[in-house]
Design goal:
Low-confidence stretches: none
Largest sheet: 8 strands, mixed
Mean pLDDT: 90
Order of helices and strands: EHEHHEHEEEHEHEHEHEH
């Protein structure tokens, strides 16, 4: 069991090749980084992911699904209500974003907001995160559309009134979406899924939220749509550029484009996974215990969350 993203510095990874009895590796977070996969492939060769004799299964965890879904909803609400610029102005004792008229004075227009009740949310990826996001959107009074790999053409019921479609229906669904919530993993199939053409299909009042992976959305296309006012706003917790060291963490822009200059955008430094949150770490330990218990009780081949190398998650 590798403890966290810094496992290379703490575990004798090279020694794995000498463990003839090794049958499974658990990386207890959701997204396994490509560099870690490459390192494991280099060490274990054809054993990694093989179902034959001597094969080593790779597993991850989805313990942080609830807290990531909470971040998606927080970003949706903050972007829809333009909460960040309003917060900044009231801190300066400026009440004008409220738009309340005063006798004999000129009235500034209120800070724009989108009412979500009665609107439509489109959730991309109806897994552990997306299913929770969809449920909360429905509870807010929104009609909910979703895409899921296993869904059939024509749409089907996903419970609680959620209309589920296959990924191929994306372009037909986008014009109906007042809020687009991306909850997809980063794979070759999802890279660049939302580009300029897809963003142009959204209504001008739409809000885009991404808690999946930055590369799912075209970096320049989203910036241009927001800068030009073709979207109401966006809430982003995942990015296109990340720091590799502590020193870089103090000065690394998350994008090649100045998203931070746009009041329409709520920015979060990939906090959705809840690193360091005590309750989440307890949940992580419980899930690891459940996986190890399942291995002891039913056999390693029955452990959940096996990594699919074909799908990339």
């Amino acid at each position: 069991v590798f403890p966290n993203a810094a496992w290379e510095a703490r575990v004798d990874v090279d020694g794995l090749a000498s463990l003839a009895s090794l049958v499974a590796i658990v990386v207890p977070y959701a997204g396994i980084m490509p560099k870690h996969l490459d390192r494991l492939r280099a060490i274990l060769g054809g054993r990694l992911g093989s179902t034959g004799e001597g094969g080593v299964a790779l597993h991850n965890l989805h313990h942080n699904g609830p807290i990531t879904a909470e971040m998606a909803i927080a970003l949706l609400l903050a972007a829809a209500k333009r909460l960040i610029p309003a917060d900044r102005r009231i801190r300066q004792h400026d009440w004008r974003p409220r738009g309340l008229p005063f006798a004999g004075a000129q009235v500034d227009p209120p800070e724009p907001m989108v009412m979500l009740d009665g609107r439509t949310a489109l959730v991309l990826g109806l897994g552990g995160v997306g299913s929770r996001v969809a449920a909360v959107c429905a509870a807010l009074g929104m009609a909910v559309l979703a895409t899921k790999r296993s869904a059939r053409l024509g749409g089907e019921g996903g419970g609680s009134g959620i209309e589920v479609h296959p990924p191929g229906a994306l372009r037909e669904l986008l014009p109906r979406a007042d809020a687009l919530l991306v909850c997809l993993p980063g794979t070759e199939e999802t890279r660049g899924l939302i580009g300029a053409e897809e963003l142009a299909l959204l209504p001008r009042h739409a809000v885009v939220v991404n808690v999946g992976r930055g590369a799912v959305i075209d970096e320049h296309a989203l910036y241009a749509a927001l800068r030009e006012g073709r979207l109401h706003g966006a809430g982003l917790d995942v990015w296109w550029s990340y720091p590799a060291t502590y020193e870089e963490a103090l000065c690394t822009p998350p994008s090649a484009f100045p998203y931070g200059e746009l009041d329409r955008v709520v920015l979060s430094p990939h906090r959705g996974g809840g690193i360091g949150v005590a309750d989440l770490e307890l949940a992580r330990m419980r899930r690891i215990g459940e996986m190890l218990s399942a291995a002891g009780r039913d056999g390693v081949e029955r452990m959940p969350h096996r990594w699919d190398f074909g799908l990339g998650y």
